[in-house]
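User: What would this chain look like folded?
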Amino acid sequence: MLFSSSIFLFAFLPAVLLGYYVVFRGMRRAQNLLLLAASLLFYAWGEPWFVLVMMGSILANYFFGLWVHAWRRRGRRPALPVTAAVVCNLGLLFVFKYLTFTLENLNLAGLNTPVPVIGLPIGISFFTFQALSYVLDVAMGTAQVQRNPLRLGLYISLFPQLIAGPIVKYSTVADEIEGRRETWADFSSGCCRFIVGLGKKVLLSNQLAVVADAAWDTPGGELSAALAWLGALCYTLQIYYD
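Assistant: Here's the prediction, encoded as structure tokens.
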């Protein structure tokens, strides 16, 4: 589900805002459950099976956090649980992003091995590094261990930054999972930022993409230097505004 899609703008987002600010107003636990459920639905909308990968990552890092905390409480350096968390998280990232690439290159070097077809879960880098950030913050003592897996799940899966970042450190938002405070000024500011960003995406980036794609689709023999530079410039601005 894209932020600029009709289903998000006219169905998903209004429903979440209505539930958050009207139906569950003043009920923090219910609001958090709503945001968690909405975030999982948001991800599952385009990745119906890969949402299980993200949920597995949430549970694994929840237990890694408890493991790290237990070692720190006993006065032990949590080197083993931290190493296990790093290996598990980066291993997950490697399997989905780089395993196929690695095997293909090994086959070119003479290794004859089957290359599996592995789909890439959208946003896997973002939610993997956010989950790892939580474990590292607990290990360094900059954040308290989270004993409620639903709260940790909300931090990792929150839909506004799930698929395109930014990566948010757990220690910077831990207190706001339960103790945040909404104001009309913040809501208004958020709406303005969203509208400006939506304009950059729809009015600028998407239109620049039309020119860039047309330039790259031009056969090599017909591609002039001026058109090549125009395509490169439009593609640069497309990525910037996107």
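Residues 6-181 form one domain. If you want, I can go into more detail on any region.
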